[in-house]
Amino acid sequence: MISHFEPTIYPLYYGWFFTSAAACNECPSRDGLHLSKEMEQIIQQYYAFYLSMLEVPYVRQRLTSMCYLDPNIDRDHLAKFWLSAVSPSFGEPSGSITHVSRPHCTAFFSNFGRATGAIEYTNRSAVREGLLGLVQSICLEGLFITKRTVGLKVKLSGDEQMNLWGGLDDEPVDGYAPDEPRPKGSRAHITLALAPGISPVETGFDALRIADSELLSRPDVTHVELTEGIIREILVSTSSEESIFYYQFNTPQSVPLLYSAFY
């Protein structure tokens, strides 16, 4: 039994994690696969979606322009510009990113208890109960590529997930802050890959850029139809030529993720 007088050890962050082999040796999925193997296959599937986006000449041309790359670069070389930030690897493993993490959606960045609201978040009953062992089906709406990041847009739903969410949805982005609060969970995302020198925190800002464009009803620049959905070119702002390419799936995908904490 843990004494009430023992100090609380706060994690770096809380979130929903792709499960590891060690965590699920006894947890086969519906089709008999272990969840860890299933997660590897999911990462490979999203990498295939990523390559299909880069296969589109217009998308490739716009991204090479924004990233100041050779305009004649082919798909496979362009794909290597963004370095895998996760394990299992998103494409080829990266030797340049030293802090590779298991794919996850951060629910709250605690910074070892130093972040504003860390104690209050830790004391939520939903958090305390969730840390005892909770797997939830998390909805993935689409894959996005910017000059900074490659990530998955997450759609949280229901009280069980919202009660675990503590992300900073209303942080200003590019100097813009909405007059009204953004919908809860607007920042929810999973980082997959990063451009050289870019921090994973930027993926959350890119997710907010997509949310702001939709909240402001800003028209997309163009649409490209693919097998699993539509690639939307979203302007970051009306005063910028920078775009986000967002592969919005026809049918959002649901994956089982484990709520836990990273220390």
TrEMBL record:
It is found in: Membrane. It comes from Hymenolepis diminuta (Rat tapeworm). GO terms for molecular function: 2',3'-cyclic-nucleotide 3'-phosphodiesterase activity; RNA binding. GO terms for cellular component: cytoplasm; membrane. It is a lipid-anchor. Residues 104-214 form the Cyclic nucleotide phosphodiesterase catalytic domain. Signal peptide: none annotated. InterPro entries: CNPase, CNPase_cat, Cyclic_Pdiesterase. It comes from the Eukaryota. The lineage of its organism: Eukaryota, Metazoa, Spiralia, Lophotrochozoa, Platyhelminthes. Keywords: Hydrolase, Lipoprotein, Membrane, Methylation, Phosphoprotein, Prenylation, RNA-binding. The keyword Phosphoprotein applies. Its main location: membrane. GO terms for biological process: cyclic nucleotide catabolic process. This is Cyclic nucleotide phosphodiesterase catalytic domain-containing protein. SUPFAM superfamilies: LigT-like.
